[in-house]
Amino acid sequence: MFVDNENTFISLNRLARHFGLPKDYLRELADKSLIPFLNVKGHRRFNPSAVQVALDRFAGEKVEETDGR
Fold first, then answer.
1. What is the pLDDT of residues 32-56, one digit of tens each?
2. Does residue 46 contact residue 35 with C-beta atoms inside 8 Å?
3. Alpha-carbon torsion angle 45, 13, 21, 35, nearest 10
4. What does the pLDDT look like over 9-31, one tens digit per residue?
5. Best label site of 11, 16, 34, 42, fewest CB within 10 Å?
6. Which residues have a Cβ under 8 Å from the Cβ of 29 and sit 6 or more positions away?
7. How many whole angstroms separate alpha carbon 20 and alpha carbon 6?
8. Residue 66 burial by CB count (10 A; 0-12/13-18/19+): exposed, middle or buried?
């Protein structure tokens, strides 16, 4: 387990396990710049706290779309 703070960056595999989401889905969100990441020597690294904020915002936008707001 890792300590989740602003200085923790993890791989896509660990991020998928952390959130219980498919790796391909998270990769797609990163490709579309919907979740933040750092590119470290060709490898994406994710801060779980920052990704959580982005996912919450993304989920809120999806709810508004389906509610017709």
1. 999 999 999 999 999 999 999 999 9
2. yes
3. 10
4. 999 999 999 999 999 999 999 99
5. 42
6. 35, 54, 58
7. 20
8. exposed
49 SS3 class: helix
**What are 40's two structure tokens?**
């470290």
> Which runs of E-coded beta strand occur in 11-69?
38-40, 43-45
Amino acid (1-letter code) at residue 24? D
- Please state the domain extents for the chain: 12-17+24-67
Q: What pLDDT is attached to residue 63? A: 59
- Report the C-alpha gap between 5 and 33 in whole angstroms: 21
Q: Which residues make beta-bridge pairs with 38?
A: 45
For residues 39 and 41, give the distance between their C-alpha atoms in angstroms, rounded to a whole number: 6
